[in-house]
Amino acid sequence: MTKRQRRTFTKTFKEQVVQLYLSGKPRAEIVKEYDLTPSAFDKWVRQQKESGSFEEKDNRTPEQEELIRLRKQNKQLAMENDICPKG
Length: 87
Fold this sequence. Notes:
Blueprint: H1 11-22, H2 27-33, H3 38-50, H4 62-83
Helix pairs in contact: 1-3
């Protein structure tokens, strides 16, 4: 099995593909016709329904947002600790 080359798709393309699905075209047909991975297609449909956006930042869960915030805070504190070591 050969590894599939990673492709990028425009927002317009994703919107058009999701619209085809929402207008009644079968999922399997769309995936095959446009040579998409089922997981990517499902993700686009889910994103469109949940937030109306295909941007990852617009589709994060509250837990994912908190994890990002805590990692930034941890990094900041570690840098402060390196700059001002206890003497």
